[in-house]
Design brief:
This protein has 147 residues and is α+β, with helices and mostly antiparallel strands. It contains three helices and nine strands; from the N terminus they run ββαβαββαββββ.
Length: 147
């Protein structure tokens, strides 16, 4: 029996592929659990159309993400913080602080998109990565200066 898999199944196939399985396996396991749909039905045609629409929508989101990343790439922002004589900050600079500095510069960025290995605890300049949909990234220079 030919079916289209809706989910990845070990030993059978990956999502979206058409595979041939025994009728009992499809009838008793895959179809009741909604892990697959039979080919040649209206549901299979609908599934293929929905997957096509999803891929078109994903491509549009990637184009928007690239446009936003191009605006941010190479941008530098200053964050002032109090520090001691050894240039160690009394607090730390987090992704929230970087998001606020980008917001003050006119770029709205969600703090969850900003990736930092660890919080900044020294004065200096740092490269911070902003991740967007589809693996699109932008690098922002953050200058941490004495207040």
């Amino acid at each position: 029996m030919e079916i289209i898999l809706i989910e990845d199944i070990n030993g059978v196939g990956t999502k979206g592929t058409t595979v041939n399985v025994k009728p009992g396996f499809a009838r008793n396991y895959l179809l009741p659990r909604r892990l697959a749909i039979p080919t040649g039905t209206k549901a299979a045609n609908l599934y293929q159309e929905l997957e096509r629409q999803k891929s078109v929508h994903g491509e549009k989101l990637i184009v928007v993400a690239r446009a936003e990343a191009a605006k941010l790439d190479g941008l530098s922002v200053n964050i002032s913080a109090q520090a001691n004589e050894e240039d160690t900050l009394f607090g730390s600079i987090t992704n929230t602080d970087v998001a606020e500095a980008l917001g003050a510069a006119g770029h709205t960025v969600d703090k969850r998109r900003i990736e930092m290995d660890e919080n900044i605890k020294q004065l200096g300049n740092y490269d911070v990565v902003v991740r967007y949909y589809g693996g699109v990234t932008a690098t922002v220079k953050v200058w941490v200066v004495r207040a």
